Amino acid sequence: MTENDLLLLNAYIDGELDPAHVLEFEQRLAEDRALADERARIEALRGAMRERLPRATASPELRRRVAALARPFAIDWGARRRGLGAMAASIAVAFAVGSAATYLAIRGDREEPELLVSSHMRALMASQPVEVASSDRHTVKPWFNGKLPQSPRVIDLAAQGFPLAGGRIDVISLTPAPTLVYRARQHVISLTALPVSLRSRGPIRPIDGYNVVEWTDGTLAYWAVSDLAAPELENFAKAFRAGDAEP
User: Fold this and answer.
1) pLDDT tens digits, 67-110
2) Is 235 helix (H, G, I), strand (E, B) or coil?
3) How far apart (Å, rounded) are the C-alpha atoms in residues 65 and 8?
4) How far apart are CA 7 and CA 78, in angstroms?
5) Residue 112: which of 177, 46, 45, 209 has the closest Cα?
6) pTM of this structure
7) What average pLDDT does this structure show over 17-33?
8) Kind and range of the H or E element at 211?
9) What's the confidence (pLDDT) of residue 16?
10) Where are the beta strands (DSSP E) in 89-210?
11) Residue 169 DSSP SS3
């Protein structure tokens, strides 16, 4: 069983494979006893974690977001409709809190660097690691508008040996985040912008063969992930920080 098999297995269990790949992977599960046994082991472990770990409580920030989602149900439609709205709002709250609890139980104590490396690896497993493919920053930056509250800086680094390949949106710690994708020869660099509150809380070490570099710029923390050698990834970070972002 290869490392790629394990990545596909976890993506399958998490419901992250598209329907075509689900059918293909289920056929592999039927034919590969070792892979099927590993699936059973992982699902049993996750079930035990959900049963034994303390129930997570929603943070004030999550409660604020859920309250914002529930506001449409507060419209005065009369007594009956208000009752239905309250019921729907309660269901929305229960669903959001339950989803958060499941997420925390599965995530465990994984920190942002590990989550970012996992997102980078999943992108590499896809048919292409971008949702918008372009080397033109004037195409990539506007693509994020309307999808996220804030677009990242987009720097043209082709002259420095790091051409822009495009962008995508990842979800890190329940936060949708813009990710720029650059290339260095055959290597892929994922550069994700997160709120500065999610910046690193300690030294960052290589994870599963991937290097991670992090820095802050105003209200954002930028994270670069790649299998590039650490000095070259540092050079990319320096070039990005020094680059000029046109409006």
Assistant:
1) 666 555 454 545 555 555 555 555 544 444 444 443 333 343 44
2) helix
3) 32
4) 51
5) 177
6) 0.55
7) 77
8) strand 211-217
9) 73
10) 132-133, 164-172, 175-184, 187-195
11) strand
191 within 8 A of 222, measured Cβ to Cβ: yes
Angle at 213 between CA 208 and CA 218, to 5 degrees: 145
Structure token digits, residue 130:
């971008």
Homologous superfamily assigned to 112-242:
MucB/RseB, C-terminal domain (3.30.200.100)
Per the CB < 8 A criterion, the answer to whether 41 and 155 are in contact is no
Contact yes or no for 165/171 (Cβ under 8 A): no
The encoded tokens of residue 11 equal 């993506």
Distance (Å, rounded) from C-alpha 239 to C-alpha 210? 20
In contact, 13 and 39? CB cutoff 8 Å: yes
Residue 176 is which amino acid? P
Bridge-based pairing of strands 175-184 and 164-172 is antiparallel
Look up residue 195 and give its two tokens. Answer: 């709120």
Q: How far is CA 217 from the centre of its chain?
A: 20
Answer for the pair 234, 213: CB distance below 8 angstroms, yes or no: yes
